[in-house]
Fold:
Amino acid sequence: MAVGIFDSGLGGLTVYDAVSKRLPEVPIVYFGDNAHAPYGVRDADDVYDLTTKAVERMWEAGCDLVILACNTASAAALRRMQESWVPTDKRVLGVFVPLIEALTERSWGDNSPPREVDVQHVALFATPATVASRAFQRELAFRAIGVDVEAQACGGVVDAIEDGDMILAEALVRSHVDALKRKMPEPQAAILGCTHYPIMHDTFQDALGAGVKVYSQANLVAESLADYLERHPTMIGTGEKNMFLTTGDVRKVSDRATQFLRRRITFESA
Structure:
């Protein structure tokens, strides 16, 4: 009865942690494509090829439902996968929908026309590939009108987090927030559009100021997944145990993951 969580690296562990606490009875297969991280600097075809290969591996492990906890994969590959690749007995879901549900305060099943919402000025912090895709703006436009989204490509942040260099990561976050504020001096809300970024949530909040509501994905995705599985219980797959798979160096990835979650995490080779 496993579900899969995929990320290009370690950032998706923020989603894994939230999902495992929200759904402790559901085994989770986590796949980190650490050998090819970060995805945020890759082109769409490359991201698609890497993502489909990883998802196939999670299907083999007994996951009928896979969450793309990687925003870059959600932005650059998900729609193409859903339209032409995912078989009818499987599901691959992304991480933008729960964010947009929270931001617009309307459920994804609400198919009424786009309408004005309370937030008009939104800062989006994401990888270069996610920013270039404009996927977040496209999905938001189906639900809301009159929302000005200013996107900031946060080059280098994922690499610093993956390398465990939190001093560099903090400096880069503050630099990117400064750059965003030059374009949008007074955002009302900020979207952390990469699952690595919740690790830097406090830094983003401090740099943006207390008056800006910062949305990060882990808990939102966990709640959305719980609701989805309640409505679609047949999508819980046949896998029976937690697994952590990586394309990278098993010992190095396990040590970094253990630092991230502050409990022992042991990866095996994908």
The chain has a mean pLDDT of 93.
